[in-house]
């Protein structure tokens, strides 16, 4: 079955989905995006993804192509048309198409593109075995809090991981881990305390991160928001990552150092199970309480 894509007001077959070569997303990476997970045909935590989308747009003085309700209606229609039960909806907004010039054009219409991807989110084999990661230099720009499509640094990080025969890379700046190439990074010490970098311009404020903070609170797992070094990570009892495309995923090896006993840790497993059980029955994590 060929997928249906959404491009600027129209639902079209994948091989007919087209945007202009003058689109500023294509020429300048002048575009932002969101990835929302889908379970049982339902969008998970989408309101928060759309809040972050609006923030990214505002930070770049970019107009929204339509209201949040309209965007969500298109996401839902795309899920329906593609009969997506489990996977992802990708959406991208660019400043639009205009003759190539660095400054913002005066009157372009933002472009909106969306597509779906099937993905096994619940029964991923890596959730059983855990991921291996390496560390790489964080060579990204200084506004990683904005979810732009300027992703060449993460692409190179992921490729370095692939070449090293591992699953992913954690990026390091000034001696501290910032985050994974497309996920937030966490370690857990021998007392069961979770450590993850504080929010700021250096990392993306993950929607899954926010949910996991609430879940940790609810099950009395202490989280400290502060940077950690690769050396601290090597000595951690557990490690994991979070993202809309992985939920909570254990990490069992960092730069060749085995984490804990080399198997997904208990706290990580608990957080993953809790995240999934709530995601399956609700659309967001707003009413999670301890
Ligand atoms: N990536 N950090 C970075 C650099 C990311 O690209 C992502 C998401 C996250 C996690 O954010 P969230 O929990 O909101 O998905 C953190 C998406 C999934 C991607 O690029 O495919």
Please tag this protein with its features:
binds N-(5'-phosphopyridoxyl)-D-alanine; D-amino Acid Aminotransferase, Chain A, domain 1; D-amino Acid Aminotransferase, Chain A, domain 2; six-stranded antiparallel beta sheet; alpha+beta; nine-stranded mixed beta sheet; globular; single chain; 290 residues; 8 helices
% residues in beta strands: 25-35%
Bound molecules: N-(5'-phosphopyridoxyl)-D-alanine
Multimeric state of these chains?
single chain
Unreliable sequence segments = none
CATH topology of the largest domain: D-amino Acid Aminotransferase, Chain A, domain 2
In DSSP terms (H or I, runs of 4 or more residues), the helix count works out at 8
CATH architecture of the largest domain: Alpha-Beta Barrel
Number of strands: 15
The Rg value, from CA coordinates, equals 19 Å
- General form: globular
The CATH superfamily of the largest domain appears as D-amino Acid Aminotransferase, subunit A, domain 2
Structural class by secondary-structure content: alpha+beta
Which CATH C-level class of the largest domain is it?
Answer: Alpha Beta
The overall pLDDT, averaged over residues, is 97
Give the biggest beta sheet.
Answer: 9 strands, mixed
SSE arrangement, N to C: EEHEEHHEEHEHEEEEHEHEEEH
């Amino acid at each position: 079955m060929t997928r249906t894509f959404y491009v600027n007001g129209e639902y079209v077959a994948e091989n007919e989905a087209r945007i202009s070569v003058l689109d500023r997303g294509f020429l300048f990476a002048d575009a932002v995006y969101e990835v929302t997970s889908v379970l049982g045909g339902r969008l998970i935590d989408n309101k928060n993804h759309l809040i972050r989308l609006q923030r990214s747009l505002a930070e770049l003085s970019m107009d929204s192509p339509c209201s949040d309700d309209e965007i969500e209606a298109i996401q839902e229609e795309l899920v329906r048309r593609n009969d997506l039960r489990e996977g992802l909806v990708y959406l991208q907004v660019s400043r639009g198409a205009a003759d190539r010039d660095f400054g913002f054009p005066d009157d372009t219409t933002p472009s909106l593109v969306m597509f779906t991807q099937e993905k096994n989110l619940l029964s991923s084999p890596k959730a059983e075995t855990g991921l291996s990661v390496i560390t790489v230099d964080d060579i990204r720009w200084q506004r990683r809090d904005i979810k732009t499509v300027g992703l060449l640094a993460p692409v190179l990080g992921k490729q370095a991981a692939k070449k090293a025969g591992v699953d992913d890379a954690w990026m390091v700046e000034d001696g501290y881990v910032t985050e994974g190439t497309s996920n937030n990074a966490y370690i857990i010490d021998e007392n069961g305390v979770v450590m993850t970098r504080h929010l700021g311009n250096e990392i993306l404020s993950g929607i899954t991160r926010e949910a996991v903070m609430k879940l940790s609170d609810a099950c009395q797992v202490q989280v400290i928001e502060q940077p950690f070094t690769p050396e601290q990570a090597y000595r951690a009892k557990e490690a994991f990552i979070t993202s809309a495309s992985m939920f909570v995923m254990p990490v069992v090896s960092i730069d060749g150092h085995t984490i804990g006993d080399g198997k997904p840790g208990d706290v990580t497993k608990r957080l993953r199970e809790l995240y999934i059980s709530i995601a399956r029955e609700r659309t967001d994590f707003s009413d999670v309480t301890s």
